[in-house]
Amino acid sequence: MEKMILKLVYLISMLFLVITGFGQMPIFKRYYIADIPGLAWLAHFYTTHILHYLSAMVLTGLIFYIVFDTIFNKEKSIKLVPSVSAKLVMILVLIITGVPMMIKNFTGTPFSPNLIIVLDLTHILFCIIFIIYTLHTFLTRQKGIIHHLYK
Predict the structure, then answer these.
(1) Per residue in 46-81, is it b (16+ CB within 10 Å) or e — as a string?
(2) What per-residue confidence (pLDDT) applies to 6?
(3) Domain of 57?
């Protein structure tokens, strides 16, 4: 049961992160996706912005829960396959690049424009790589992160 709940939280948070992340770019309004009934909220920048942050908090909390649960639960043994290790590294890079991008939105942060560009491009690049790699692991029927940690 715990595995199913964790998997559902992971999938929903990832889905919202992808949708709202692309919603930060005005592609949904530009390509009339927001005109589809029920999807008008995708064209509202602040709505997608807040939902992106909330989804990132949920995913980060889930990662901390899994890490601490694995560390303090002596019955669990960690056997990470390469696909899970690669996904964890990609998620870590997304978090590492996402946190400074969030901080830069506060007034008075001393980030240079070049650093912001590098962070943005790195974040988008790893997002695309993560989506493609996740699709690859899904199509080749490789098990995911939750499956390997919670058998």
Answers:
(1) eebeebbeebbebbeebbeebeeeeeeeeeeeeeee
(2) 87
(3) 1-74
Q: Give the pTM.
A: 0.84
Domain count, the chain: 2
- Please check whether residues 84 and 150 belong to one and the same domain: yes
Backbone angles phi, psi at 18, to 5 degrees: -65, -50
**Distance (Å, rounded) from C-alpha 136 to C-alpha 10?**
18
Per-residue pLDDT reduced to its tens digit, 88-120: 899 999 999 999 999 988 878 788 889 999 999
137 pLDDT higher than 90? no
